[in-house]
Amino acid sequence: MLRLYIIFYVFVHSCSAKKREDYLEWPEYFMAVAFLSAQRSKDPNSQVGACIVNQENKIVGIGYNGMPNGCDDDLLPWSRSADDRLDTKYPYGMLVIYLRCFFTVFI
Q1: Rg (Cα) of the chain, in Å, rounded?
Q2: Which of 3, 44, 59, 60 is the most exposed place for a label (fewest CB within 10 A)?
Q3: Do 68 and 99 form a contact (C-beta atoms < 8 A)?
Q4: DSSP category for residue 47
Q5: What residues of the chain score a pLDDT lower than 70?
């Protein structure tokens, strides 16, 4: 099931025939999207977001540090340190971001 979210935001500045000059540039816009996607992370220590963009400035993938769709995020270790490195979050963190972006773009 596909869902479409549309937010219509109207800011009445003044009645002017000129275009706005204070709009976000593309890099600022994409960084804001990455920042917003990072807010989905359940990691108590760090929130990481990613936004993949093609040459036409179209977003083709968004990801954050969390478990891939369909995986229980309660199975991910959230600690920064442990006797066994596999009991920390670090072996899984960046891999999850890459997987999220990959599945968003290619599947």
Answers
A1: 18
A2: 3
A3: yes
A4: -
A5: 1-16, 67-69, 92-107
CB 43 within 8 A of CB 66: yes
Spatial contact of 73 and 42, defined as CB atoms under 8 Å apart: yes
Which residue bears the tokens 């000059």?
Answer: 21
Long-range pairs for 73-78 at CB < 8 Å and ≥24 separation?
73/42, 78/42, 78/43, 78/44, 78/45
**Domains (range + CATH), the chain:** 26-106 (3.40.140.10)
β partners of residue 49? 64
Q: 72 φ, ψ to 5°?
A: -80, 115
pLDDT 10s digits, 33-50:
999 999 988 888 888 888
Q: What is the pLDDT of residue 64?
A: 84
Q: Which of helix, strand or coil describes residue 34?
A: helix
